[in-house]
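Batch job 17 of 40 flagged for manual review because the log was empty.
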Amino acid sequence: MDLQKRPTGDGEKPDRQPATTDRKPVAATELRCSDADRDRTADILRDALAEGRITAEEHAERVEGVFRAKTVGELEPLVRDLPGAHGAGGTRAYEPAPNHPAPGAVPPVADENVAAVFSSAVRKGRWRVGRRTHAYAIFGSVEIDLSEAIFEHRQVVIKAVAIFGSVEIRVPENVSLRGNGAGVLGSFEVSTLDSGEQDAPVVYVDGLGILGSIEAKPKRGKMIEDLLDRISDRVHGQMRKHLGH
């Protein structure tokens, strides 16, 4: 049997060559825009209206365009002629959560107290987290699990005191976690965590362990499922406010 390829003659189709998979990278303007991108664009338009650079009619028309935009390239023309799009205020760089709550953001009085004296106390499941929670473990143990909780406030403080006891705190992976405390013949351990979302909740753990232990860390695999929806609702609310100007 002759295994050699015969030359292609008239009327004969040449051997097929394997298809090439030359995929070109997607241009930045073709990327899908996020709610944060829309929020930044709306902020530029709001500032331009306040400065008298555009009229109220132009502002309303452009904000409607922000609602309709699906890609970054569709947002750019809406602010191309405005200085805010070309200066430092044109983009909002990601900033990690501060180490302490903003002044006045969290009241000094606790919304809820969780105490265990010669016993144990558990707060977990689908519950609404107040701005401030106090946990006391005296010859006992307290478990506070926020992995399925409902966050109605961006800044949450948990004050923990453990005397011959333990306080264990677990948070979702997509929030920020900060700690400020000490252990006296005991331990105070907080695993610092930074969320990828600029507007994600921040949990601040302040504590003191006297011959006891305080531990706060993320619960792997647990996320705030409605976080993106809540951020989206906030952004859309701002958009509607812009349209009302």
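Reviewer: the log was empty due to a logging misconfiguration, but the result itself is present. The CA atoms of residues 96 and 133 lie 23 Å apart. Unflagging and moving on to job 18.
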